[in-house]
């Protein structure tokens, strides 16, 4: 009984001063209290870390860990800054309104400042695997970083991702889904990167827009099209998990409902 009580998750908070972002970044760490094998710890970075207490991530992790349903994962919640719409996005290209113009700087913060900070703070000899997840625009950011840095990350989780991110206004008469959605094009024009695994979630109530009038909301179309591009690129169905929630909305409650599915997909045992 005492052993079960020792299995738990605790939280710690730190601040990282970023030269790339020119600001302080607040970080929340969710740590398992018992770790038999230091090489058995996985790492999960999560954008929009300010949403994690709302979905009660600490309690969720504790429940799954105590029940033996997930292996130990160090979760790192990265609080979004005031320039969220500039720092999140696709590093290679801003959208048609210029948003995401600081995504490259955010990527450098993750790789060159946050990752070494985590390594030094916890003195982990090496993580079993590393993943990056996020919600909405933070999900797009996580997918972009994982896609472009498979030498660092092996998994990504995208919850209601802003996969509509586009290089042209959809009201432009020349706008074309197949050419102007930035992340879909990046995957299509990229190369197959072995070892990557993708978890993508969307909800049928994420929004109401249906730009091509096909009876399917844009959020679902855009997510399904990412899956299609990944399959065409050479990934197998077992490399992908697509979760479509009938009652899913664009909110923290929905993402909290999907989070245990994601955690068991990535680190279940």
TrEMBL record:
Organism (species): Niabella pedocola
PANTHER family: ENTEROCHELIN ESTERASE-RELATED (PTHR48098), FERRI-BACILLIBACTIN ESTERASE BESA (PTHR48098:SF6)
Family annotation (Gene3D superfamilies): alpha/beta hydrolase (3.40.50.1820)
InterPro entries: AB_hydrolase_fold (IPR029058), Esterase-like (IPR000801), Mycobacterial_A85_antigen (IPR050583)
Protein name: Esterase
């Amino acid at each position: 009984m005492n052993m079960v009580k020792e299995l738990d998750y605790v939280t710690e908070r730190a601040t990282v001063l970023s030269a790339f972002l020119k600001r302080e970044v607040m970080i929340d760490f969710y740590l398992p209290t018992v770790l038999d094998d230091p090489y058995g710890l996985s790492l999960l970075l999560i954008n929009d870390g300010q949403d994690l207490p709302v979905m009660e991530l600490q309690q969720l992790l504790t429940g799954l860990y105590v029940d033996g349903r997930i292996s130990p994962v160090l979760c790192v919640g990265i609080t979004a800054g005031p320039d969220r719409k500039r720092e999140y996005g696709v590093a290679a290209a801003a959208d048609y309104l210029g948003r995401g113009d600081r995504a490259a700087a955010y990527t450098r913060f993750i790789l060159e400042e946050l990752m070494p900070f985590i390594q030094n703070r916890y003195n982990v000899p090496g993580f079993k695997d590393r993943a990056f997840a996020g919600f909405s625009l933070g999900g797009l950011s996580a997918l972009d970083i994982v896609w472009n840095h498979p030498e660092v990350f092996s998994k990504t989780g995208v919850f209601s991702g802003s996969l509509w991110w586009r290089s042209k206004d959809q009201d432009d008469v020349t706008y074309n889904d197949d050419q102007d959605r930035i992340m879909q094009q990046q995957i299509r024009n990229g190369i197959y990167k072995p070892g990557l695994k993708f978890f993508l979630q969307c909800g049928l109530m994420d929004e109401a827009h249906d730009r091509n009038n096909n009876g399917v909301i844009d959020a679902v179309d855009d997510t399904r099209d990412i899956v299609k591009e990944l399959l065409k690129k050479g990934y197998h169905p077992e490399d992908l998990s697509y979760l479509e929630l009938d009652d899913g909305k664009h909110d923290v409650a929905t993402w909290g409902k999907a989070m245990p599915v994601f955690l068991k997909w990535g680190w279940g045992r």
